[in-house]
UniProtKB/TrEMBL annotation:
Pfam family, one: Cupin_2
Protein name, entry field: Cupin domain-containing protein
PANTHER family, per database record: CUPIN TYPE-2 DOMAIN-CONTAINING PROTEIN, SLR2101 PROTEIN
InterPro entries documented for this protein: Cupin_2 (IPR013096), OryJ/VirC-like (IPR047142), RmlC-like_jellyroll (IPR014710), RmlC_Cupin_sf (IPR011051)
TM annotation in the entry: none
CDD domains: cupin_BLL6423-like
SUPFAM superfamilies referenced in this protein's UniProt entry, alphabetically: RmlC-like cupins
UniProt source species: Streptomyces spongiae
Domain (Cupin type-2) ranges: 111-168
Length: 176
């Protein structure tokens, strides 16, 4: 995946300041096919970066504070990968906690989770199922979008192919 970042030169003109792979990207060894990328992040009240300096090395939680953002791209392997006898859920949990601090802490054993965010999700490739805590399932395909309003949910890849989704998480206050 390629990330192009713009900024301004010393004369205030628009320039490309970075063009290359997403630096904060991880292919999990405990679950082949699971790939997590953090292309960008902002903190609450942060001004637009004039220089395009990469904020991702300083991110300590993938959960943004209210008004902050996280841009995350995930590739989900088929769910059958977790049924493989070689799959080690403890090792996967360890990798998740190292790669996705904040969010990993909210994960339940079945993948359900609730975050204090409004998430804009776009299916880039493949077919995936959004499951809500009442058991309701909604199938999504490439090009579909979902607005996740801080509800308990999980993602299920029932297909035989990887699914890639892009998410923008916007930190929000809980309503109760």
């Amino acid at each position: 995946m390629r990330r192009v970042v713009t900024g301004h030169d010393e004369n205030g003109r628009s320039v490309v300041v970075s063009d290359g792979p997403v630096p904060r990207s991880r292919e999990f060894t405990s679950l082949p096919g699971w790939v997590s990328r953090l292309p960008w992040a902002t903190d609450p009240g942060e001004q637009v970066s004039r220089t395009g300096e990469d904020p991702t090395p300083k991110v300590t939680s993938l959960l943004p504070a209210p008004g902050g953002t996280r841009f995350i791209v995930l590739t989900f392997p088929p769910d059958t990968a977790m049924a493989d006898p070689e799959f080690d859920p403890v090792a996967f949990d360890r990798e998740q906690r190292a790669d996705s601090p904040g969010i990993a802490d909210l994960m339940e054993p079945d993948g359900m989770h609730t975050t204090p965010t409004v998430d804009y999700g776009i299916v880039l490739q493949g077919d995936i199922v959004l499951e809500l805590d009442n058991g309701h399932r909604t199938s999504l395909s490439a090009g579909d979008i979902v607005i996740q309003n801080g509800t308990r949910h999980s993602w299920r890849n029932r297909s035989d192919h990887p699914v890639t989704m892009a998410f923008v998480l916007v930190g929000a206050e809980r309503d109760g």
